[in-house]
Design brief:
The complex is a heterodimer of chains A (about 250) and B (about 280). By secondary structure, chain A is α+β, with helices and mostly antiparallel strands. Chain A has a single domain (about 1-250), classed as Ribosomal Protein S5, domain 2. Chain A contains five helices and ten strands. Chain A has helices spanning about 1-5, 95-110, 135-150, 175-180, 205-250; strands at about 25-30, 40-45, 50-60, 70-80, 120-130, 160-165, 170, 185-190, 195-200, 200-205. A five-stranded mixed sheet of chain A has the order 1-2-3-5-4. In chain A, strands 6, 7, 8, 9 and 10 form a five-stranded antiparallel sheet that branches. Chain B has one domain (about 35-270): GHMP Kinase, N-terminal domain (Ribosomal Protein S5, domain 2), CATH 3.30.230. Chain B contains six helices and twelve strands. In chain B, strands 1, 2, 3, 4, 5 and 6 form a six-stranded mixed sheet that branches. Chain B has a four-stranded antiparallel sheet with strand order 10-9-11-12, with helices on both faces. Chain B has a two-stranded antiparallel sheet with strand order 7-8. Chain B is elongated, with a radius of gyration of 20 Å. The chains are: A alpha+beta (about 250), B alpha+beta (about 280). Chains A and B meet through β2, β3 and β5 of A and β3 and β6 of B.
Chain lengths: ~250, ~280
């Protein structure tokens, strides 16, 4: 344990990938990347690559799952077979079922499901390249894809993990820090309302560390939220730009 | 009748009428393919990978390799296997769940094209590390991300391009020939040449290359074959309920060499070391 604790931080106090303790990895988000999907998002977060497609609101099959007063949300979170060190079998594992459920429950909190009785909103997420923190990145991407599909929402869900490395609380764990560190604590929330929709942890934390982690996570989520907003708006500012061009030509 | 099926009938009438006039919905000639782009080496965790944008179709192929036991009937051969995922991401009509007949056919057709082309020297010591005991097992997984028609050709090209930039970890064989040690250093996967797939569709009596989504949905029959850089046909697959005549098959096969050349060229372009994508990035 002692060896692991020291080896995850360099002598100058920086992390192995050169980041400060509270620094996020580079994040890019792009909406409307797929033609067939109603809404989509391609998100990179460090070396994570995530594609998310949203279909719906649409008719639900099989019908007995339908709720007469609202739509249901179905989420499928999957890891691509080649996204991890050892090839993963294509059949979903327990971890993927659990994360799909948690992501669905988080998204439930911001969707106006009562507007679409008997319907379904299907969210498909595939992690193409995994590098730690995929559930938070997946939730962040899913919110963008939902907004891209034009589905009414109270707000975005934004996620970011914090964790404990070499006895220090750090923001946005990498794959190595997640596996060899002392603990991992993913958080996701509606940043605007302050409602936390996902909180998990594994590892060992003191009460003080959990409190510190939570406030670090919320601060980081604020930064990710800004990028998320920009990604959704980018599509519309582009369209605006095009119409302006047409206007100029006419003059 | 679901709304998608009604649309299907209307779409089919539309493309059939166009084809009778010798035209296609997207303005292509009958033997003209859509623009094809390969982005190599896009996945960091994979040993090799490629994204293929084939017209409106987008696929991602990744290669993973692990050391394992050979099959008892081929103790001196490495193992290669192709798996396909027609992800529900790719279309409103592609549903999630265990692989259906369409997915299995896609995987097997791509697999046969590569396997039967013999471009992978399975007995090479780089693949068959300790004969009878330890061989590389190469998994090629193809994910369909956007289903814009002609999945077979796009998937086959992606699989081939991913193999072309695959690097395996070097191994040191211990003296007793029992165990091997994996080194951090990597070397390119051995390969003799390349192969690509060509798919034709038939609607009424019109036969054309590279069906797009509309044509794919409306097709009565499909014919795909794989051709190597040596001009050898190494796999063929006729699909769907429609039929072809002998003459139609021979006419299609005669187009092979011309149509396969630009695809094989693209595969070679993206397999050049070390110029390939070291940033593991792609864009839609």
């Amino acid at each position: 344990m002692t060896k692991e604790k020291t080896s995850l931080l360099m002598d100058d106090g920086r992390r192995l990938d050169g980041r400060e303790l509270h620094e996020l990895r580079p994040i890019t988000m792009q909406s409307s990347v797929l033609d067939r999907a109603d809404g989509s998002c391609y998100l990179t977060w460090g070396n994570n690559k995530i594609i998310c497609a949203v279909y719906g609101p649409r008719e639900l099959h099989p019908k007995h799952l339908a709720k007469p007063d609202r739509a249901i949300v179905r989420v499928e979170y999957r890891l691509a077979t080649f996204s991890v060190n050892e090839r993963k079998s294509p059949a979903p594992r327990r971890r993927e079922y659990e994360l799909s459920k948690l992501i669905k429950e988080s998204l439930d909190a911001v969707l106006f499901l009562e507007k679409f009785p008997n319907g379904t909103i299907d969210v498909y997420i595939t992690v193409l390249d995994a590098d730690g923190g995929t559930r938070c990145a997946a939730l962040t991407a899913a919110s963008i894809a939902l907004a891209d599909a034009g589905i009414p929402m109270k707000g975005f869900i934004t996620g970011c993990a914090v964790g404990k490395v070499a006895d220090k609380m750090v923001v946005d764990l990498s794959d190595v820090e997640d596996k060899d560190g002392q603990g991992d604590m993913p958080v996701a929330m509606n940043f605007n309302t302050g409602e936390i929709t996902l909180l998990q942890c594994d590892g060992e934390f003191t009460i003080e560390e959990v409190k510190e982690g939570l406030s670090l996570a919320i601060r980081a989520i604020g930064d990710v939220y800004k990028l998320q907003r920009e990604a959704v708006l980018a599509k519309y500012t582009q369209i605006e730009g095009t119409t302006n061009d047409v206007g100029d030509e006419e003059e | 009748m679901r709304s998608e099926e009604i649309v299907g009938v209307l779409e089919k009438q539309y493309i059939t009428k166009l084809l009778e006039k010798g035209k296609r919905a997207d303005g292509r000639k009958f033997l003209e393919g859509r623009p094809v782009q390969i982005i190599p080496n896009v996945i960091k965790k994979a040993e090799g990978s490629a994204m293929v944008k084939w017209g409106e179709t987008v696929i991602l192929a990744g290669v993973k390799a692990q050391l394992g036991s050979p099959f008892p009937d081929t103790p001196n051969d490495g193992v290669i296997t192709v798996n396909a995922e027609i992800s529900p991401i790719s279309s409103p009509t592609n549903e999630s769940g265990p692989p259906g007949p369409r997915t299995v056919e896609l995987a097997r057709v791509v697999d046969r094209g590569i396997r039967e082309s013999k471009i992978m020297p399975m007995k090479d010591p780089k693949l068959c590390v300790i004969p009878g005991k330890k061989v590389w097992i190469i998994f090629i997984d193809v994910y369909i991300l956007d289903d814009g028609g002609n999945l077979i050709d796009a998937a086959a090209l992606g699989a081939m391009a991913a193999l072309a930039n695959t690097r395996l970890r070097k191994v040191v064989i211990n003296e007793d020939l029992e165990e091997v040690t994996l080194l951090e250093e990597t070397e390119p996967l051995p390969r003799n040449g390349s192969v690509a797939s060509l798919t034709f569709a038939k609607i009424n009596d019109s036969i054309f290359y590279d069906p797009n989504l509309l044509e794919d949905r409306g097709k009565e029959a499909r014919f795909s074959f794989a051709m190597t850089d040596k001009g050898i046909i190494c796999s063929m697959q006729k699909g769907e309920s429609g039929v072809f005549t002998e003459e139609e098959f021979t006419t299609i096969l005669d187009q092979g060499a011309t149509l396969v050349a630009p695809l094989l060229e693209k595969i070679e372009e993206c397999s050049q070391f070390p110029e390939m994508n070291e940033m593991y990035q792609f864009d839609f």
